[in-house]
């Protein structure tokens, strides 16, 4: 049985007081009795404060990005060893904004995923097609390529620390949510492709959590989560207000 996850991607939004206020509200309302696992991904600048507020709470604080290396000369970057000083052991990889605007290819994602998993970090790997790719009937080719390249060479035993987020780019921040049927079709495909990665991968495919992301709101999440292959949501806008974040968790 795959546990559902609601993950909030705060991107480069929120001031420190705003981030702290949402974290405090989550700490108050989310308990060990909460059915879903809750994660937040604040700006790197806010990680320390948010992780401190959420310490002792089941809400997981994760980083939006990190560099795949140990402590070294790499100006402007942060690494898992530094994140672990704050108890941060979850990192997003391959978000479409990083793919689109910062040149993060699936090959770079693969390097990060391998390094982070080998460092004992849990990874949420984001994949998804653009509108042009969907309209040219290339959705499944793109997803297959992102899975094959991004997950190349990852050992079976490491998959327990991997979560996939299917985020159609045309639905991110646009208010245009995929229909539950469109999302389910993509999730089922992703699960099938993971199951074909290596001999015995069908077991990891069955247990891996696949989140949907793209204009998820409290009023559309239930219909998405009702689908058998959708194991939660990676949420931008609606996670950046306490009321709507709590609405998603509920
Ligand atoms: C995201 O940033 O991953 C995302 C899905 O954003 P939104 O929910 O705002 O579409």
TrEMBL record:
Active site, renumbered: 95 (electrophile), 167 (proton acceptor)
Q: What is this protein called?
A: Triosephosphate isomerase
Q: What's the EC number here?
A: 5.3.1.1
Which GO terms fall under molecular function for this chain's record?
Answer: triose-phosphate isomerase activity
Q: Provide the GO biological process annotations.
A: gluconeogenesis; glyceraldehyde-3-phosphate biosynthetic process; glycerol catabolic process; glycolytic process
* Protein role: Involved in the gluconeogenesis. Catalyzes stereospecifically the conversion of dihydroxyacetone phosphate (DHAP) to D-glyceraldehyde-3-phosphate (G3P).
Instruction: Identify the metabolic or biological route this protein is part of.
Output: Carbohydrate degradation; glycolysis; D-glyceraldehyde 3-phosphate from glycerone phosphate: step 1/1; Carbohydrate biosynthesis; gluconeogenesis
Q: Which reaction does it catalyse?
A: D-glyceraldehyde 3-phosphate = dihydroxyacetone phosphate
């Amino acid at each position: 049985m795959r546990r559902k996850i609601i993950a909030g991607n705060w991107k480069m939004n929120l001031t420190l007081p705003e981030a702290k206020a949402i974290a405090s509200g989550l700490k108050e309302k989310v308990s060990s009795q909460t059915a879903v696992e809750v994660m937040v991904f604040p700006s790197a600048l806010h990680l320390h404060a948010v992780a401190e507020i959420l310490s002792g709470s089941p809400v997981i604080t994760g980083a939006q990005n990190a560099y795949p290396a140990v402590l070294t000369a790499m100006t402007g970057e942060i690494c898992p060893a530094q994140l672990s000083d704050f108890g941060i052991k979850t990192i997003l990889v391959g978000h479409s904004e990083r793919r689109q605007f910062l040149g993060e290819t699936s090959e770079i994602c693969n390097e990060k995923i391998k390094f982070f998993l080998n460092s004992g970090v849990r990874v949420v790997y984001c994949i998804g097609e653009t509108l042009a790719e969907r309209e040219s009937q290339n959705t499944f080719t793109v997803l297959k390529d992102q899975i094959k390249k991004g997950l190349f060479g990852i050992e079976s035993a490491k998959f327990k620390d991997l979560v996939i987020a299917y985020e159609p780019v045309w639905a991110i921040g646009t208010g245009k949510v995929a229909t539950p049927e469109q999302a389910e079709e993509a999730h089922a495909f992703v699960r099938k492709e993971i199951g074909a990665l290596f001999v015995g991968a069908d077991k990891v495919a069955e247990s891996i959590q696949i989140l949907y992301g793209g204009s998820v709101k409290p009023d559309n999440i239930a219909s998405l989560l009702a689908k058998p292959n959708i194991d939660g949501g990676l949420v931008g806008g609606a996670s950046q207000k306490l009321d709507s974040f709590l609405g998603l968790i509920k």
